[in-house]
Amino acid sequence: MATSPVKDFLVTYIMPEKCYERIFVSFYINVPCLTFIMNRAVGLWILLDTFLAQLLQLLKILWRRSADGLSLTSVLLQLYAFSCPVVYAMANNFPLFAWGERLFALAQTAAIVFLILHYRGETLKGMLFLLAYGCLMFLLGSYAAAAAVSVMQTSSLATLIASKVLQAGTNYCNGHTGQLSTLSVLLSWAASLGVIFVTLQETGSSFATLSHTVSACLSGVLLAQVLCYRSSTTTSRKKNE
Predict the structure, then answer these.
(1) Tell me, what DSSP letter sits at residue 176?
(2) In 3-state terms, what secondary structure has residue 94?
(3) Which pLDDT score, from 0 to 100, does residue 46 have?
(4) Which of 222, 220, 231 is nearest to 57 (CA)?
(5) What angle do CA 90, 95, 97 make, to 5 degrees?
(6) Cα–Cα distance between 176 and 236 in angstroms, integer?
(7) Of 47, 111, 98, the residue nearest 90 (C-alpha)
(8) Furthest-apart CA pair in the chain: how many Å?
(9) What is the pTM of this model?
């Protein structure tokens, strides 16, 4: 007997078949199934953030042909934070499918750095940066000491938090958010909340939970700035045009 497309999708991506039978056939909801479904949904959302958050920011810069309002230092810190798990995976010879989405986000962030420099009239510097960065990543992934790689991996979250602080400070000083993408910030904020949930489920570490909570709060600040400064951002863009 043919199954419905809805069941096929849910059983394939969201829940095991026994949970589907309990919830949609027997109309019985139990805690293990709910926990499993929430973990799977959060995981998919985090994956969506990895693939789309930086891409949306990149597309907005290209569409507006401007990187006004974006902090170069903040994006460089993001680049470092995204580089750490990639270097760690390369150094430990993890299969590409286990960290390919990280590499995708990394490439997008490097492109954003280049575009910021390009729209500042420093295209050559941007090209040289990409070349130097590519060489550095290869060297780190191939020859870096295990201790250095471990330190990088440990410091990635703190660096990401610092990047959000810098961007929030830049927004406050400018009085607008410039070309900061609303959808990108929204995705990052929602993914940060998801990471808190996963951390509580998997590790229960108070320090890790606190760190991710700080990161989520800062993402919330950036989202609030994007919404509150919307009129100022529009005015600034019209002046630049």
Answers:
(1) S
(2) coil
(3) 83
(4) 222
(5) 115
(6) 8
(7) 98
(8) 64
(9) 0.86
What is the pLDDT, as a whole number, of residue 1? 42
Residues 174 and 235 sit within 8 Å (Cβ to Cβ)? no
Spatial contact of 222 and 189, defined as CB atoms under 8 Å apart: yes
Q: CA-CA distances (angstroms) from residue 110 to 66, 82, 98, 127, 161?
A: 16, 10, 21, 10, 18
Crossing angle (nearest 10°) for helices 123-143 and 100-119: 150
**Cβ atoms within 10 A of the Cβ of 227, count?**
12
Q: Where are the alpha helices (DSSP H) in the chain?
A: 5-9, 17-20, 31-64, 72-91, 100-119, 123-143, 146-174, 182-202, 206-228, 230-240
Query: DSSP string covering 177-188, please?
Result: -TT--HHHHHHH
Name the one residue in this structure whose structure tokens are 């309990």. Answer: 22
Which residues of the chain fall short of a pLDDT of 70?
Answer: 1-3, 202-205, 232-241
Q: Model confidence over 73-86: pLDDT tens digits? A: 999 999 999 999 99
* Cβ contact 149:112 at 8 Å: no
As a whole number of Å, the CA-based R_g of the chain is 20
| Pairwise CA distance, residues 102 & 241, whole Å | 35
